[in-house]
Design brief:
Structural class: alpha/beta
Shape: elongated
Order of helices and strands: EHEHEHEHHHEHEHEHHHEH
Radius of gyration: 27 Å
CATH topology of the largest domain: Rossmann fold
CATH architecture of the largest domain: 3-Layer(aba) Sandwich
CATH class of the largest domain: Alpha Beta
Distance between the termini: 34 Å
């Protein structure tokens, strides 16, 4: 959190030392810094600290830049080593975890496990779901083709065939989904053709229903009618074009006509799970 407008104030550096990602400590530090809006503070994270050599490098960096070290190490021996080295080198070290661990150890009569990242491991399903939702939102409507290969599922189809709501529904269930629009007469990026087609699902829908959905969308947006977009003939041509495209590439097709999103999602999951087990990419 660096406030460039406070030009007369030197930048103070905080180095976050963590045995895991450092995300929790960063959040707490930024919460504290919000109370000092005029302060010029630079925050750097040193994650996944496991060895004493890493601690030595961190302390040396702090000494050189006159920085303070904020640490959340749960490994008792590594935490003790950091504190000792900081005192030896005259570096300010602020412990966000040790005091709490000591207090809980005394009150509960147990020794802490001292395993970095244990909370994240215990909440893995939650974090996996958050990751899936973030990925899916970032890869909606053909965005970021370079990372489509990271998807558990790629949903493709014409405009208003339900790609986005289906993708988001699947992401809440923990699936990373990219969705890619098929447009009559426009070729898809090369990245699409490099995908494992076993992970791609093509959506189709009855042309008459699609035309109605598009008309409803136009009325909702308050935009003038676009003849090609809602024309029954053009809509039929688009649906047929997409179907032929999917069949040519050997892509599995799910018909979403008159189906609730839950039913379509179940079909997609069943196809992917049959091919890949849990279906999640690693």
């Amino acid at each position: 959190m660096d406030n460039p407008s406070a030009t007369n104030q030197p930048v103070y550096t905080l180095l976050i030392a963590s045995g895991s990602t450092g995300a929790s400590a960063e959040l707490l530090v930024n919460t504290a810094l919000a109370q000092f809006p005029e302060g010029r503070v630079r925050v750097a994270i040193f994650p996944n600290l496991r060895e004493r050599e890493q601690i030595d490098e961190l302390i040396a960096r702090a000494q050189e830049s006159n920085a303070a070290v904020i640490h959340t190490l749960v490994d008792g021996s590594l935490r003790t080593y950091l504190v000792e080295q900081a005192q030896r080198q005259g570096v300010v070290a602020i412990d966000l975890m040790g005091t709490l661990l000591t207090h809980l150890s005394e009150k509960l009569g147990q020794q802490p496990l001292g395993k970095p990242g244990l909370y994240r491991l215990l909440r893995k399903s939650y974090f996996d779901r958050v990751t899936a939702i973030e990925y899916t939102m970032a890869h909606d409507d053909g965005k970021d083709p370079a990372n489509w290969h990271q998807a558990d599922i790629v949903i493709s189809g014409v405009s208003r065939s339900g790609k986005t709501p289906l993708s988001l529904y699947l992401s809440v269930l923990g699936w990373k989904v990219a969705n890619v629009p098929v447009v009559l007469g426009l070729d898809l990026p090369d990245a699409f053709y490099r995908l494992d087609k076993q992970r791609v699902i093509g959506l189709t829908i009855e042309a008459g229903q699609l035309a109605v959905l598009r008309q409803q969308r136009q009325r909702h947006l308050g935009v003038p009618a676009l003849s090609d977009y809602t024309s029954p003939q053009k809509v039929y041509e688009e649906v047929q074009y997409a179907l032929d495209f999917f069949k040519r590439l050997g892509i599995s097709i799910v018909d979403v006509t008159d189906k609730p999103i839950e039913t379509s999602a179940e079909e997609v999951i069943r196809i992917i799970s049959r091919r890949f087990g849990s279906g999640r990419s690693q």
